[in-house]
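Q: Predict the bound structure with fe (ii) ion.
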Amino acid sequence: MLFRQLFDKTSSTYTYLLASRMGGEALLVDPVLDQTGRYLKLLEELDLKLVKVIDTHIHADHVSAMGKLRDATRCVTVMGAESPADVVSMHVSDNEKINIEGITLKALHTPGHTSESYSFLMDDRVFTGDTLLIRGTGRCDFQNGDPYEQYHSLFERLLKLPDQTMVFPAHDYKGDTVSTIGEEKMFNPRLKVSSAEEYAEIMNNLNLPNPKMMDVAVPENLKLGLRLDAQHRVPAVEVEELLSSWPDVDGQLIDIREDSERERDGAIPNSMHLPYGQFETYCEATGPLRVLGQNSRLLLYCAVGERSTLAVEIADEHGIKNIAHVPGGFREWEAEGGPVEKID
Ligand SMILES: [Fe+2]
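A: Predicted complex:
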């Protein structure tokens, strides 16, 4: 496995690069905008294809590189379902899996530092964001933070993991790089409490100044997505238009979300499934899109319209022109009351 812990000095942020092999797919956790060039260079050096980028939560101390990395690599942006960010390609809920080639992360909703904070568990290690730090825990005094929720996230979720699980946080201000659950149980002063009330008492009296970047970083990190206007840079068919003639559709609907999203949320009836992860191969000479596109217009949709925008661009570059997407995606379809088929 390839594992890199990258550091941003300005914000003391750790970013993690994961891949199962050189030449394979890669994933980044908590990338920092200012370091984008460095990530892209490292990906190239290791011959990796960035396919997913995850933010553990909306950061207040730095601007995320998620949007810029999506634009540079067409990777899928991922956050927890509770994220208030405008558009993230893919949302995951508690206990859901995030897959790339050879690597699986399990999403753990661990609110408290912020309401949408997630940790991500991978076999022998857990990426704890700002929920559990080395000998510390993330502050709870802004972005809907709540010390009682954090106590629960720590004691009922993270500290229930095996003692030898390695802890990789989103920040360290002292230079520590890794700990374990067992070590934190023994030596983390914030965890030396006997009740949620006692924990809240400590957290409510930290009296910390706001992060320097907060007024810039939070609003920026809430609008990293490809909003509806940007989703119209490629040919589009609106949900309203589809519903006006439903069930007659001028074209073949193609769902490019992943199995887990379809099983969780259902799908538009009569749609084919061709997940975004292999989109380049579908566009090749013998690929399914090439064949399908000869007979009918292709109408792609994803969760919110971000992946489908990128997918239309990929298809266009491969010379497939009879293709459009549904802005707003399945979320918009549901919001407009479109029929939904259950997927097992
Ligand atoms: Fe944070």
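A: The two ends are 32 Å apart (CA to CA).
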